[in-house]
Structures are given as structure tokens and as C-alpha cells.
Write a structure and sequence with these properties.
Blueprint: H1 20-51, H2 54-96, H3 103-132
Helix pairs in contact: 1-2, 1-3, 2-3
């Protein structure tokens, strides 16, 4: 007969204090799912409109540019998700190599991932919108 223990057998959320490094790790997975689902749907919709002729493509672009710049909001969100997922992947790659496990270094890398994604997204859209205006 198995013996019941009053304590958890592995680390539990009640033991771990949430921090930026936990947020970035979880958010990385969310961004990956967002890129895979929303990004694929938008890409397929654009390709179908492109392959369907100029009238369908014009309708797609009207929807994308209308409604408070819905297309720009979705594209900016996807570019943020891309940059965040890329930088978080680099962070995890460094950690897989055995570096960056110290709490200070881990927090620094997590903040750099978040701010880097914001800066890269902003720079991308300043360039994109600057060329289209």
C-alpha cells in the first residue's frame, strides 16, 4: 500500500516566487502558439486572396487597412511575437549551454528579452510606416 505524504513530491508554485524570468518563459510559449495559429491563419488568408485575383486581394487589403488599422495592429502584434519568441529562444539556447542560471543573470536576460522585443518591434514599424507614408 502506498504511503501518503503531506508535502509535494516536486517543487510547487506555492514554493516558487514568481518573477520576470518565469513570466518570460511562460510568455515565450504563448508567443509560439500565437505565431503558429494566428500567424498561419493570416498568412494563408493573404495567400488565398493573392491567388484569387486582384478583386479578392483588394478586398483583403481593404479589411486589413480599415477598422482602425486592423491589419497594422495584427502585423505589429505578430512582429512583436516573432521578436519575443526569437530572443527568448536565444535566451534558452544560452541557458541550455549551461550559462545564465544565476538569479541575477537570469533576471537580466529576461528583462533584455522583453525590452529587446519591444525595441525591435518599434524599430521595424518606424521603418515600415516611414516608407509607406
Amino acid at each position: 500500500m502506498a504511503v501518503k505524504h503531506a508535502r509535494p513530491l516536486s517543487p510547487h508554485l506555492s514554493i516558487w516566487k514568481p518573477g520576470i524570468h518565469m513570466f518570460v518563459s511562460i510568455f515565450n510559449r504563448v508567443m509560439g502558439v500565437g505565431l503558429a495559429t494566428v500567424g498561419t491563419l493570416v498568412l494563408v488568408a493573404w495567400l488565398v486572396a493573392l491567388a484569387s485575383g486582384s478583386e479578392a486581394y483588394s478586398s483583403f487589403m481593404t479589411v486589413a487597412k480599415g477598422c482602425w488599422g486592423l491589419g497594422i495592429v495584427v502585423a505589429a502584434g505578430l512582429s512583436f511575437a516573432f521578436y519575443f519568441h526569437m530572443l527568448a529562444g536565444i535566451r534558452h539556447f544560452v541557458m541550455d549551454a549551461g550559462a545564465g542560471f544565476e538569479l541575477k543573470a537570469n533576471r537580466l536576460w529576461a528583462w533584455m528579452t522583453l525590452f529587446g522585443a519591444v525595441l525591435l518591434t518599434a524599430a521595424t514599424w518606424v521603418i515600415v510606416l516611414g516608407k509607406t507614408l
